[in-house]
Amino acid sequence: METIQSNYSGTRIQKHFFSDLSVMLGRSMRHIFRSMDTIITVTIMPIMFMLLFVYVFGGAIQTGTANYVNYLLPGILLIAISSGISYTAFRLFTDVQRGIMERFRSMPIAPSTLLWGHVLTSLVSNAISVVVIILVALLMGFRSSAGILSWLAVVGILALFTLTLTWVAVIPGLTAKSIDGATTFSYPLIFLPFISSAFVPTKSMPLVVRVFAENQPVTAIVDTIRALLSEQPVGNEIWVALAWCIGILLLAYLFAMWAYKKRT
């Protein structure tokens, strides 16, 4: 009898995975829209960086481009996403501390939908932040000659980058002992674009810094997005960017699922 009931429960969970996922996504999105200050906070800091670098430092930075905001925007978008994913860790940590996870595990729902609900919420909330920043950049003079296919490629890369960092954020969200431990991991990620080609060409950097900057994932991603937005040849940078994102995504997903199973 127990075996039959267990099989029935497993079949039901598999059959209703997407309906369960929609419930979890709706739950997480309601938290976002009830507390819009999280999106506002994530959006304001990159915009302030953009204003600072364009109107204060922009005249002193030689990038070889006529419009510095065009050069700067890809890195600003990555900073916004790196900042935004810390809220995923925060919300997941809160669920763990309040015992929400154990409650859901006792219900006949697909176990991974709780995590995927947070992950998809991160994609939506960060997409909102990215759109707002692009609109501000347009007011500041950003212009792009990219066609629809290039823009779709940019959207795809930003979505993959967000997905990758969100699964990284899931790990401290599940394993941290304090709220500070769950969120401060994002600080190095926010700082990483500053040691890349996001703000200045890497050739102007000292040798040791340049070697690091040219061989870390942000530079490949920034250069790819910048080339797509300006309708320039992408070259091998896009494959390097995809390799970094997919490799980190797979590792983060495996560690996150291991931590989730250990927690539950």
UniProtKB/TrEMBL annotation:
<protein>
    <recommendedName>
        <fullName>Transport permease protein</fullName>
    </recommendedName>
</protein>
<comment type="similarity">
    <text>Belongs to the ABC-2 integral membrane protein family.</text>
</comment>
<feature type="transmembrane region" description="Helical">
    <location>
        <begin position="114"/>
        <end position="142"/>
    </location>
</feature>
<feature type="transmembrane region" description="Helical">
    <location>
        <begin position="148"/>
        <end position="170"/>
    </location>
</feature>
<dbReference type="GO" id="GO:0140359">
    <property type="term" value="F:ABC-type transporter activity"/>
</dbReference>
<dbReference type="InterPro" id="IPR000412">
    <property type="entry name" value="ABC_2_transport"/>
</dbReference>
<feature type="domain" description="ABC transmembrane type-2">
    <location>
        <begin position="37"/>
        <end position="263"/>
    </location>
</feature>
<keyword id="KW-0472">Membrane</keyword>
<dbReference type="GO" id="GO:0043190">
    <property type="term" value="C:ATP-binding cassette (ABC) transporter complex"/>
</dbReference>
<feature type="transmembrane region" description="Helical">
    <location>
        <begin position="238"/>
        <end position="260"/>
    </location>
</feature>
<feature type="transmembrane region" description="Helical">
    <location>
        <begin position="182"/>
        <end position="200"/>
    </location>
</feature>
<feature type="transmembrane region" description="Helical">
    <location>
        <begin position="39"/>
        <end position="59"/>
    </location>
</feature>
<dbReference type="InterPro" id="IPR051784">
    <property type="entry name" value="Nod_factor_ABC_transporter"/>
</dbReference>
<dbReference type="InterPro" id="IPR013525">
    <property type="entry name" value="ABC2_TM"/>
</dbReference>
<dbReference type="Pfam" id="PF01061">
    <property type="entry name" value="ABC2_membrane"/>
</dbReference>
<keyword id="KW-1133">Transmembrane helix</keyword>
<feature type="transmembrane region" description="Helical">
    <location>
        <begin position="71"/>
        <end position="93"/>
    </location>
</feature>
<keyword id="KW-0813">Transport</keyword>
<keyword id="KW-0812">Transmembrane</keyword>
<keyword id="KW-1003">Cell membrane</keyword>
<dbReference type="InterPro" id="IPR047817">
    <property type="entry name" value="ABC2_TM_bact-type"/>
</dbReference>
